Amino acid sequence: MTMSVPARRRRAPTIHDVAREAGVSRGTVSRFLNGGHHVSAVSARAVEEAIRRTGYVVNRHARSLITGRSGSAAFLLTEPQEKFFEDPNFNVLLRGCTQALAAHDIPLLLMIAGTREEQRRLLRYVTSGHVDGVLLVSSHTGDPVAEQLVDAGVPVVLCGKPMGPGRMAHVAADDRDGARQMVRHLVELGRRRIGTVTGPPDTPGGVERLAGYREVLAAAGLPADDDLVETGDYSREGGERAAARLLARRPDLDALFVASDLMARGALAALTAAGRRVPQDVAVGGFDDSAAAVASRPELTTIRQPWDRISQEMVRLLLTQLSGEDTSAVILPTELVRRASA
Amino acid sequence: MTMSVPARRRRAPTIHDVAREAGVSRGTVSRFLNGGHHVSAVSARAVEEAIRRTGYVVNRHARSLITGRSGSAAFLLTEPQEKFFEDPNFNVLLRGCTQALAAHDIPLLLMIAGTREEQRRLLRYVTSGHVDGVLLVSSHTGDPVAEQLVDAGVPVVLCGKPMGPGRMAHVAADDRDGARQMVRHLVELGRRRIGTVTGPPDTPGGVERLAGYREVLAAAGLPADDDLVETGDYSREGGERAAARLLARRPDLDALFVASDLMARGALAALTAAGRRVPQDVAVGGFDDSAAAVASRPELTTIRQPWDRISQEMVRLLLTQLSGEDTSAVILPTELVRRASA
DNA sequence: CTGAAAGCGCTTACAG
DNA sequence: CTGAAAGCGCTTACAG
């Protein structure tokens, strides 16, 4: 079936071949390649032709050696791989970042470094110049990797608010206000005994969403007893267990604010198992507006995180840093999405 | 909190600095770096010291420019991202390959190219030398990307048997024999009306596992009517729908061989919804022995794919190709794992 | 075992 | 606008 011998790469054409073919100098070819400034229309056309005829592709190693740039960026996850696979938000974020960078012709490498050993390798890899910058995603912050990268002079943009000291470039949704919107909605529904399943206390989402919940209850003059609060781990199972504990302690609950859609699905299972109807007996609000929200039965009322804009802003901040400027932070608004569960 | 000004990268130390510091030539330093052959113990020690003192790290762009090697490999997925996230097998495979390559100090880049546009970019990226070889995963074969990479002279190893013509290096589990083992098991359980949910007909698993099923039924003298066969798409939902159709058509089914664990979980849901008990009324066998198998209720009897060995072999074949040798294929045995569902 | 030298393919001031 | 030239940091025969 194979018609021709596969074209084993012989000597690949270089800029020199193109120059000879086009009848110009290598300098001119290079200038054409790098934006075409100071190249006459005639030369440009000749070079263009020559590139096509020779099948020339730039040797990125040679280019990188001079420019000190690799021309690519990393999407780094400093969590165990499972996390990544389970959470639908990562999916959306990764796709968004890939597309935003593609518009600048910068490929995005996905790197996962959950273990210490992987993180050591990663650091070596990045600092040895394979990548110009890093988009870092990890829910648990105070992440040592972030610090180490920044210390090594690598441009880094975080997804989510950093919890440690020091200012790091980051993009995040307004967690606290999102929580406020949701709990306010539950209150307006007439609910009075509103529990919450939070994220881990060492994550910004865990802290901020709980704070927003408390603010609204206080403002509404509703009880915010500690036994209305349970901690989850952003996993579906964790949400189910947390909701079950809550329900055992407070069978009189009439609403539940769950700090992620995935956990909310778990909570739904716990409620169903306990014979509660949603939303009639217990109204349930999630957070994220991820794929999990619409896959759920009933569909989840939730808080939309603007993932598209988050990824766009992350890329923008990274590019800014690459061009040598200092960057700061961007906080994006969240929005209540009403569906069936509350 | 920050004690010192972050060490902004000034001029990084080069091999030249190390040579001067160690009192040897750059050639000697380079030889030390590349295996230490033809370097006296004394020189070696001096270089070692100098490297530590200067904090030297090799500039990989310069090295790559000469060797023509990037020193890294890609784990490429030519499917929509969702696929990747849903299927627990990918997770295991990715981790296995990463570790096997790490032992050779080769970082693995995860690249996802589901759309045509992404595949174009990818091809440019890989052929421009960013990566020395590709581990390619895609269930639907006859994948044009694989052919294109091979044509461009890029070392490629496939996971799974290629369906197209031409010989491509690949590693796969023995799908057909796995199916035989499972169906034989169902027959030995005394089941006589055994249905199957297959994978897509354009995937090797879809074809081979169905073939194994048919072989055993024929050998056992059992009916293998077409109405006992439904096609799934390897997703949980697909499995659920397929099983429901099967059940509607053949309410007398007493066993079901489902070509993936994920689909088997869907099938379980369909059976439960139809009021069937598993395994009493209908015995269910899966395929993969993925995380889904033990997460399921009841736990799935299934066919174990040796993912660890598969990833090890994929890496071995890739390294072989990188060293210039031709490679062929490796087929690994599968194994029946008995749990509760059959 | 080791140094001097050539060269990998490209970019970028520097003169014109 | 354009060419000649220097140089990025490394590896690798080639002589010794």
From TrEMBL, chains A, B:
The keyword Kinase is assigned to this record: no
Positions of the HTH lacI-type domain: 13-67
Keyword set, alphabetical order: DNA-binding, Transcription, Transcription regulation
Coiled coil: none
Protein origin, superkingdom: Bacteria
One Pfam match: LacI
Gene Ontology MF: a single term: DNA binding
Protein name, as recorded: LacI family DNA-binding transcriptional regulator
Organism of this sequence: Streptomyces carpaticus
Lineage: Bacteria, Bacillati, Actinomycetota, Actinomycetes, Kitasatosporales
